[in-house]
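agent> fetching stored inputs for the adenosine-5'-diphosphate docking request
agent> found them:
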Amino acid sequence: MANVSLKHIYKVYPNGTKAVNDFNMQIEDKEFIVFVGPSGCGKSTTLRMIAGLEEISAGELKIGDAVVNGMEPKDRDIAMVFQNYALYPHMTIYENIAFGLRMRRIPDIKRDKEGNPVLDKNGNEIPVMRKYNKRELDQKVNEAAQVLGITEYLQRKPKEMSGGQRQRVALGRAIVRQPKVMLLDEPLSNLDAKLRTQMRSEIVKLHNKLNTTFIYVTHDQVEAMTMGTRIVVMKLGFVQQIDTPKNLYMYPANKFVAGFIGTPQMNFFNVTLKKEGDKVRVRFEGPEASIYAPYSLLQKTAPRYLDGNTPVCLGLRAEDISLDPEAVKNSKTNIKVKISHLEELGTETLVYGDIDLGYDGIEETDTRIIIKAAGFKDYKTGEIVEAALNFGAAHLFDRQTEESIMPRIPEYNYLDCKVEEGEISFAGNKIKLPPAMECPDGGGELLIPVTAVNFGGEISAEVESCENINGQILLCLNVNGDRLYALSDSEQTGSVKIGLDFKKLIIRVGDRQIDPMPLINGLTGTFVSEKTPESVNGKTKKVAHYYLLINGVKLEAPAEIYMKMFAATAGRKVYNSEYRYEWTPCDFALSGSGIEAQVLEVLDYGGERFVKCAAGGETLYVKCEGSPTGKIYLLPDVSKVSVIEREREIRIV
Ligand code: ADP
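agent> prediction call returned; pasting tokens
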């Protein structure tokens, strides 16, 4: 029983394939996690890194409290079940299950023939490593066999067992070891469809019985959806989304996840959106049809998508479209469909068609539609019917990036504003802009990131709703009738006072844009070591020290940093590589020595001041007091550095 933590995990194979990129996840004890994605997306590689069968290129992997990056598989307290269950054919099932245990040593204390502890001359017990005895083996094998329902087959040989039974034996071999984490790599893909379904529920039951963390790899989204407490969807080495089955289905973060999860696949249509008062006109490309949706459904969407021109992809699941005459009569968002053919599945019928009446619905056009209807249906090929679209369940994606444009946590709030003599008016409030945000007078737009709202300021707001989204608390605030989303540390209700973190805001007035202050400072450098004579236990020895070398300045790296750099660059040229060292503006001290920089200006954001300075061709923003001028020296806090290796572009610290 253990949690598993993956931080900035990368796998770059020697041939340069980046199989896994910046994998971050906190797996809680006893979770059933499924890694899912098409072949080659990096799911097995990730699992094999957790198992210790594949070296980790960069990042930190913890099982329980221990960092296991360099630990042998056998010491990780994990058990792995593969697709190919590879039982020993000449051994009985009992022996197959007991085999792993026979090879193990367990800690005990030395005992005499009667089983009493033998003590050393100081009266202490003597620790020893010993094998399992027959009674213990029997007990463990029988327990596992019972859990898996194979007790009666223990004396058989594998060839006398069915595929499903053999897979159970493979599971038995893993569970007798009582691992902290069970890793399963496509364990069911060799079984036929019926057996797969049966074993699926058996594995879920097994997970409940064992109360152990399970990590399961599959390419089958149905398997993922029915088994996982949380699912990691991967594509081309990148994590696309980590969430519960329900949330993946309801709130896919991008078009890939939307299309991958659920059968039949989600319908996608090319549309443009135009805000017209409190409605949004959704214009379909192809059939030249339009529907009107209430703007309230699209409030988390950036205004630029609502200009009537920006290409958007509309996603609707087959069950969110209805042909039921009653539903069509009551719906204001209907569209014409030309029926092509039906797939009758008994309890439901999949109706295929096209919303472009010029097509036949058989061809996979951009306008093809699949509708789920209850029971048997009797439509004729070529028939034109009205379908009601449940726009409340619609998904919208940027057609270029394929990211959702209605994320559960929006990035920005978009508000109309007016700037006049250094004061900004928005949502019925007028506040003074800090000196750093010099802005011309005029009307425009204010973009407030949800992370830029703090609590305890001057602006009055009412909490309209409070939503916990995977541990992040999103408040929907009403500020004099305008809606404002804000992330909060705690749940809140009623009236609140809020303030704004000015350095994160964007103001657009005319063709001027006031940008937020960059929150990451990057400096390029190398890594060096130096040996210095030091007195160790009264003797003079040469001791190695390690440094980040930036613009000719050596900054000593603490052990936790250089160990990670060595681990991530093992076998590579740690001293010959170039690195990007990154810090936040708060991680520097202005000092009498350090990295030389030239002050460009001091940015006064009201409560906070930052010095904008140039250091060897880079522009940096550093928190400061007072008004430094001319030449300054910066001392970054090396323990807080993030390091990116330039050659492979991977984050190694
Ligand atoms: P999945 O399990 O999702 O099918 P893998 O983790 O097996 O994917 O592979 C991810 C990527 O890494 C693929 O592009 C694959 O070709 C590549 N890959 C896997 N193993 C190796 C290897 N030993 N050497 C080089 N590339 C590899």
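agent> quick read of the result: Residues 193-210 form the longest helix (18 residues).
agent> awaiting further instructions
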